[in-house]
Amino acid sequence: MRTQRRWWLIILAAGFAAAPAWAEIKIGVVNVATVSEKYLKTKDLESQFDTLRKSLGQQRDAMKEKIERAKGALQEELKPGTSEFHQRRKEIAMMEAELQWFIESEGQKVEKGLAEALRSIFDDIHLCVKEVAEEQGVQIVLAADNVPAEAPDTPNQARQTILLQKVLFWKPDVDMTEAVLTKLNQRFKPASGSGTGAVPGTGVDKPKAPAAGTEKPKTPAKPAETKKP
Prior knowledge:
By secondary structure, the protein is mostly helical. The protein has a domain at 26-145 and 161-191: 2-Layer Sandwich (Protein Binding, DinI Protein, Chain A), CATH 3.30.910. It has six helices and two strands, in the order αβαααβαα. Strands 1-2 form a two-stranded parallel ribbon. Helix 3 (40-77) runs antiparallel to helix 4 (83-136) and helix 4 packs across helix 6 (177-187). The longest helix has 54 residues, at 83-136. It is elongated.
């Protein structure tokens, strides 16, 4: 019995000496929402899309104004029932169809561009998290978000907010958020300052800003009339 007990003690000691691999795993956390919000690329893309929306809105309003002027001219200049009246109505209908197509097609481009921009931001974060994790010897990185300070409006929203929490507790020394954010912003180079090219994912050119120091040509002043004696 003593010999058997001694063997069991030796086996247990060997088991504790060779600790399982999971006991040595180093874990880190990253607040993805904070990184995404403070990433300079996010602000740059938001600025580009805001400018694009404003430009498209101006084009849409110009098309609407043109249609309204055509409708007004139709009623004032042409007599109902005439061939010219029907021809002008046909032209207006084509203008309205073109406007509708413009709104739908350009809206789809913007939505597609936004989706691609969000994906590019996440890809950047994912790559940076991997690099920081390798630098710090971290094997697993978990996404950790803080519960919003303001209370949800309904019990269902409160329940959903609580259930979506992936990490309930972590020590400050395992938080990699600032390291990831610093690396992201250090390597980011803004592209919106050029004012040319296409907004990412949309195929729509950015509105071109007028060159610095250029002015519109002034209309030459008419020479003063001379009175005949």
